[in-house]
Amino acid sequence: MEERRPARLLAMGIRFFLTAALTATRTPGGYAPFALGCAAACGPGAEGIAALLGAGVGALLFLEFSEALPFLAVAVLIFTTEAAFQGLRLLEGPLFHPLAGAGLFLAVNGIYVLQAITPLRHLAPCLAGAVLVGISAWYYQPLLQAGQERLEPDNLLFLAGSVALAFGDVELAGVSAGRALLCLLLLYTAYQRGGTAGAAAGLCGGLAADLCAGEGGVLFAGAYGLAGLLAGSRDSSRRGWAALMFLTGVTLAALPAESPMPLLVEAAVGAGVFLLLPGRIFGGKRVKRGEGAQFPAALEGMRAQLTRLSAALRDLYDSMGRAAPVSSEENPAVVFDRAAEKVCRGCALCQFCWQKEYTSTFNALNDATPFLLERGRALPKDFPGYFADRCIHLSDFLTAINGELSAYLLRRQYRRQLEETRRSARGQYAQLSELLTATAAGLGEVQATAGTADTVCRVGAALRPKEGETVCGDTVASFRTEGGLFCLLLSDGMGSGEAARRESALTCRLLEQFLQAGIEPEAALKTLNSAMALRGAETGSFTTIDLVTCRPETGELAFYKYGAAPSYLKKGGTVRRITGGTLPAGLRGGTVSPDVTRAALEPGSFAVMVSDGVADPGRDEWLQNLLAGWDGDDPQILAGLILSESVRREDLQDDRGVQVLYLDRGDGVKKV
Q1: Strand residues in 164-297 grouped as ranges (E)
Q2: Lower CB density within 10 Å: C or N end of the chain?
């Protein structure tokens, strides 16, 4: 805890000074939307308090009293709202912070707009400010949310641009330091990411600069957009050429203006600083931008990905074929059996008809069967005279037969339609697999691929079969995709023993193939669930699916659940319980989405997956206490400890499976 305190104080200080500095970026109407977006992105807790204090200091330094009052009101409301929702899943959604910030901004400033003498005149600046609050909160939150900070390039660019706008009024020898810095950022973006990204960044940055300048024109938007397009569309790798194209674009757009000189000087200063930047910032020596050298590599990767996806679909097709038994129609005799249960059981002649004269009764019903199935209903003439004359409840018997016959025919129609749908789905999987195989074959041969980097994740797993069984019906798997995504799977097959093991192992194998083929986890799970629903219509089986994905380099963690038991996220002495409410895979068809929970895995933290045989979900306090008090760093030891403690504490008659993911603290890399 003592080691983390300086880092925590540094994080709070950054949020304090950042919010205070962004208050200087004002739009027409006296609004400071970037500062409010920053406060919204910081969320509740100590970081949110630091941002709120920064907003107060910024209001004192940069805002008039009439502007500071609604600004501080919005900041306080944002913090209290986020604090009120703290701990709920709603707060974890990516839209909560932007929508809360924009909505509270409109709620407070809308009152001032309505009370103005000319409300329509103030409406547009107010709406623009609300939009900027939401957009800035959206871009800031990956950088500023406590425990989930991710240095995304686009978000960093947005933050740097908004900070540059805060220094727009700072002038050195008549040159705006903020806009010169903005020109540097735009030129760097265009040079690194091409003309499209340069033009988009230039237009957005220029519109923000025009709005903050409050002159009602689009001079900066036009100049920066054209300059970004020209600078990024170069055919040479030389920075000098990119800087020249940037200055050319600014000059062409600024010439019609009344006083273009300040804009030209600011662009020249930004281009000059750009040329002075060290080469290592740009990733070392650059080669001429040409698609010819990159295109074959892209084709090779595409071909490999299509081949893996085709293999996954083919295995899915084969698994559905193996699961389907030989189709057999229901015996029509069930109609007479069920009708006899309703009518004949209480009849005085029951023993005579169904025991002494069983053969004649059987023959009479067997002879009537073709007429029933052809006509769809039974009539007295369908039965031989010796049977019809003997039956003292013939009318009731015919009514019962017709009711059961209608149900039988409906069941037969349903089975045939289901079988046709199943064959159609299997055929579509096979056709799609063949199409992908043919497409991949046309992309050329795959060259040798480079090896992937070792991961800093370690995994521990433990399985124990149900008492009396020799194999465990739970299956665990862990792997890393070529895209760098680390995946852990835990599947619990219905029942126990070898049949459950086959189902859970098949589920894990198919899902691993989909993920290795580059399919996004949620899409892969939806596809597998739909296929298993068709497969389960014949076998009656289903499985739970528990998937954890992690990017070790950023700590991004996601839990995906189809009917799975709770999982646990351990950070030091704190344990977070992850649950879901979706049914197991195969119980519902269609595009049923899995439960998804996103979190951050910090170095030294654990993600723990268990099957429902380990702990009763209604009383798993012992497991949470065990995780909170354990201070080791070996995931295999922790998995074994959980399993042994479960055997000692729980009397659950089921298979038990545990899988633990651990992210190392240090810089040393360890393979799984």
Answers
A1: 171-172, 175-176
A2: N
